[in-house]
């Protein structure tokens, strides 16, 4: 019997470059990259290397002032959830948290309660509280709930733990891993922290000086660090 065909990737980038519209400087080069369903990947690299730009290229939503050349393919209507560095960035500052989760996603109160419970939060305790009344770790878990309430096939997180203490970091990674596994969503996380990769048991993409490398290859940055 022939082996089953591998699942179709959620997003493929082929021969992609992203450049500044004004200066034409190339900011990111992606020879070939595929994100398969239900996989976990971390994107690592020095500050300014192009990690956030790669996340934007994967979503197909680029910041103003840059242009993408090459081929990005993704199924029509691909649902993508996004988790920012600070949960507050995903939330309206004045609306009670429970109400805004339902208003933004259209989810029922029961489903909202269920997803909040999955990240360790009690919906009734949050119902009347605004984002400023929650801790950084709680806000990050609310942002994760918001991302998963939309039933995404792909969740993108940009430095989701860099503003957290170690305990909140571990909790955040544990809920990201647990929810993505339970929902069958692929997870792509940009980070500076090698522990994030270990705790997520994720594949690795390196970005160095705007160029994407797949897997545990030694980059010029690694060679310099080893030589130092
Ligand atoms: N809207 C934009 N227009 C032009 N250049 C940009 C724009 N956004 C980012 N850049 C440039 O693209 C390059 C990559 O930036 P990016 O934010 O992807 O880096 P990063 O690896 O995520 O860095 P950090 O870890 O510090 O967040 C940088 O040189 C940055 O100045």
From TrEMBL:
This is ABC transporter domain-containing protein. The lineage of its organism: Bacteria, Bacillati, Actinomycetota, Actinomycetes, Micrococcales. Residues 11-227 form the ABC transporter domain. It comes from the Bacteria. Keywords: ATP-binding, Nucleotide-binding. InterPro entries: AAA+_ATPase, ABC_transporter-like_ATP-bd, ABC_transporter-like_CS, ABC_transpr_LolD-like, P-loop_NTPase. Pfam families: ABC_tran (PF00005). Signal peptide: none annotated. PANTHER family: ABC TRANSPORTER RELATED, IMPORT ATP-BINDING PROTEIN.
């Amino acid at each position: 019997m022939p082996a089953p065909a591998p699942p179709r990737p959620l997003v493929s980038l082929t021969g992609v470059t992203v450049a500044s519209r004004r200066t034409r400087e190339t900011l990111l080069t992606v020879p070939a990259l595929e994100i398969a369903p239900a996989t976990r990947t971390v994107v690592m690299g020095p500050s300014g290397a192009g990690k956030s730009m790669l996340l934007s290229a994967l979503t197909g939503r680029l910041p103003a002032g840059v242009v993408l050349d090459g081929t990005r393919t993704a199924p029509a209507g691909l649902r993508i959830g996004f988790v920012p560095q600070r949960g507050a960035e995903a939330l309206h500052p004045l609306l009670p948290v429970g109400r805004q989760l339902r208003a933004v996603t259209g989810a029922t109160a029961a489903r909202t309660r269920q997803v909040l419970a999955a990240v360790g939060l009690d919906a009734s305790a949050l119902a009347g509280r605004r984002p400023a009344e929650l801790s950084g770790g709680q806000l990050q878990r609310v942002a994760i709930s918001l991302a998963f309430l939309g039933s995404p096939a792909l969740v993108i997180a940009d430095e989701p733990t860099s503003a957290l203490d170690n305990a909140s970091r571990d909790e955040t990674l544990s809920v990201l891993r647990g929810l993505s596994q339970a929902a069958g969503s692929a997870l792509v996380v940009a980070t500076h922290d090698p522990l994030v990769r270990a705790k997520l048991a994720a594949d690795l993409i390196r970005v160095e000086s705007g160029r994407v490398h797949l897997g545990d290859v030694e980059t010029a940055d690694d060679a310099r660090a080893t030589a130092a």
